[in-house]
Specification:
The chain has 263 residues and is an alpha/beta fold. It is built from ten helices and eight strands. Helix 2 (54-68) runs antiparallel to helix 3 and helix 5 runs parallel beside helix 6 (182-194). It is globular and about 60 Å long.
Amino acid sequence: MRLGGSPGKEEKVRKYILLCALMLGFTALASPGGVIFILDASNSMNISFQGMPRIQWAKDALGELVMELPDEMPFGLVVFGHRIPKDREPESCRDVELALEMGVHGADVRAEIVQWVQGLKAQGKTPLAYALEFAAGKASPPCRIALITDGMETCGGDPVGVARDLAAGGCVVDVVGLAVKPEEEDALRELAVAGGGRFWRVEELGSLLATLREVLATPATTAPPVPPMLACYNVDPEVVKLLLAHLPYPVSDPMWCVILRFL
């Protein structure tokens, strides 16, 4: 049966029905919007600022934020620089750890991670590029990364290029800079723009908690584009974006080949 005698309209309805079926079938697996934090625990975070080390400002603010996040909000935590001193290269440039996997966490788990964060020792290098790649690998798109740092890449990576690739794959990167110098601010702002997110400069570290609240309350500046590896299929880009937003598969998953070819 044709709808209104229009083959084009009939095709759109077919796609819509299939899309609804897919979404219903995978609702239990799909992840609602959330954020994965990256905490900089590099050696420079020991620098005292306004009477307290930067790392302590970050620990306290992040701890308060974690305890007040909505119960249903998924979040995770990645930390770098906390296990291997900066003079131990190249090991320190790979010192990135998933402290809390992405997901919905109850009060007990939140309290445990806050206590764990308070025990961190800032001592390593600043592998921003690697940390971004690592964090994005722990969350399915669309995802959001909130990087809390006091400086630039010190391991020779290309965090701007990585952020650009992540945005193309459906993962937005926001950056919070702690008492950064002008040249550091420029580099971190470029990183955030490349990642489809925003940059926040925190000069009064006592306002860090308020800034982190603002980050979560602010939507991404732009919708992530359709990844090139998925754009090659003859499927309406808006349909692809909708699927990316509701299905749990990373863009590299072969399942996308099955889904988009069927469409």
